[in-house]
Amino acid sequence: MDSMTSLLGLALRAGRLAVGEEPVGAACRAHKAYLLLLACDAADNTIRRAHQFTQAVKTIPLTLPLDKAALGGCLGRESCAMVALTDVGLAAAAAEKLAALDPETYGPARDTLSQWAARAKQRRKATQAQKKRPGQGKQEKRK
Asked: Is the dihedral of CA 88, 93, 97, 103 positive or negative?
């Protein structure tokens, strides 16, 4: 679980982690959140709100085997019940680490997020290839 907390700390420093109920809700409504993580001791109201955030968008909700104090501790806070990863690669890596702990619970999320990450990687490659070939597809004006 140490690697999971390290990954969340890295995502926070990279600006790819929404922390707390309001930022997570905003990220979900903006269709930027890929993975919503809840502490195992989150309140019922918090769990209900998290599932409301994820119903209309493509965000996967998962419950972490960390309590609020441990989750908040790895993020430099006293406690935290809800976070959302806004980078598909980091979300796939987090799901992979969780699936290594419990494949039955976290396996389907890992598979879905790894597919999303692969598609995003293909789109990045296509965009980079297009940047290397300027003028392709455009008709140049001749005088």
From this structure: positive
DSSP 3-state assignment of 96?
Answer: helix
Q: Which residue has the tokens 């619970």?
A: 105
Please give the torsion angle defined by the CA atoms of residues 54, 45, 9 and 15, in that order, rounded to the nearest 10 degrees. 50
Sign of CA dihedral 24, 112, 14, 5: positive
Q: What is the DSSP letter of 143?
A: -
**Dist. CA 81–CA 104, nearest whole Å:** 23
Q: Taking the model in full, what pTM does it have?
A: 0.86
Exposure of 93 in the CB half-sphere (CA atoms within 13 A): 14
**For 15, which DSSP code?**
T
Mean model confidence pLDDT for the chain? 91
- Asked whether residue 130 carries a pLDDT value surpassing 90, the answer given is no
